[in-house]
Amino acid sequence: MGSLTVASMLVFLVCAATTNADTSEIFQRTCEYSTMHVQCPAGKTIRLRSAMYGRKEVNNECPNSGPDTTTCEAADSGNIVAQMCNHENSCDIPASNSVFGDPCVTTVKYLDLVYWCR
């Protein structure tokens, strides 16, 4: 049983070292009508975790002159950003209704992105 425990610990340590080496998530937000520039260091590529174009909170980063809608999200945000950026070293994403559709008319939206560079 002792050798099984040691072997299990070695497998765990090897797996932990491989999976935790590049797990720092990067968060970016850009307001509607702007373009988000995503860049990884040389030799690394973008791996998308999540993307959201819409509005989920009232904040001062992207002031909203319309109604305070905080429950809107473009349904296909993740797939759109993944097609544009996944496995690329860098990409530019317009935070625009022409790219994502308009999930909440008269509300200023933003693009939130969470990704890794691996």
From TrEMBL:
GO molecular function: carbohydrate binding
Signal peptide residues on this chain, from the entry's feature table: 1-21
InterPro entries: Lectin_gal-bd_dom, Lectin_gal-bd_sf
TM segment ranges: none
Coiled coil (residue ranges): none
Keyword Transit peptide included in the entry's annotation: no
Record domain SUEL-type lectin: where: 30-118
UniProt keyword Repeat present: no
Superkingdom per UniProt: Eukaryota
Name of the protein in its database record: Rhamnose binding lectin isoform 2
Organism encoding this protein: Botryllus schlosseri
Lineage, highest ranks first: Eukaryota, Metazoa, Chordata, Tunicata, Ascidiacea
